[in-house]
Design goal:
Length: 191
């Protein structure tokens, strides 16, 4: 029989109140609380916390506190990733972020979702779908990235956008729902 954690990571319905998952979320809460209380002067402490919190990260990672996540271990970050203040990553499934990615303040990345069926919701079941953000992406402040989304390399997401579906590489996309506005100069979708 599969554990609730295995179901969660496989994209199946799972029970988030499972003791193992609760313990893992509590671990992330303790680590993010320490990270959020740290300052730029706490370089070695911050580096240790980031190494312990995330599933992996490259060099040059910078997070402006506060930062929040569900597990941390399902977040894989490339090099030179920047999170501005008050970002949230619900990483019930894998969140893979490439190199040179910038997040404005209040950006939210969701892999977690709930079933549309009310009976399943009453049972406390959830589902999670991975999110992928490729290299050189800039996500404007207060954007929301929904489960299952891939944002292509070099794309720019306008502030306040709600990204509900894939965004191709090399475009500026904005709105609710987020849609391609135009190609970026030199990008593959230049118009």
């Amino acid at each position: 029989m599969r554990s609730e954690r295995e179901k969660m990571l496989a994209g199946e319905l799972y029970d988030a109140s499972d003791p193992e998952l609760t313990a893992l979320r509590n671990r992330a809460r303790r680590l993010t609380a320490r990270l959020n209380a740290s300052t730029a002067d706490d370089g070695p402490l911050r580096a240790a916390l980031l190494g312990e919190l995330f599933g992996g990260h490259g060099e040059g990672l910078w997070i402006e506190p506060p930062f929040y996540c569900d597990y941390g271990s399902n977040i894989l970050l490339g090099s030179h990733v920047y999170f501005n203040f008050n970002c949230v990553v619900l990483d019930c499934a894998e969140v893979r972020i490439g190199d040179n990615v910038l997040f404005g303040p209040n950006v939210q990345v969701y892999t977690a979702s709930h079933p549309l069926d009310a009976t399943q919701r009453r049972q406390g079941l959830e589902v999670a779908v991975p999110v992928r953000i490729e290299d050189d992406v800039w996500v404007g402040g207060s954007a929301v990235i929904l489960p299952g989304v891939t944002i292509g390399a070099g794309a720019v997401i306008g502030a306040g956008s709600v990204v509900t579906k894939e965004v191709p590489a090399g475009v500026f996309a904005a709105g609710n729902p987020c849609q391609v506005v135009r190609g970026l100069e030199g990008g593959p979708n230049e118009r």
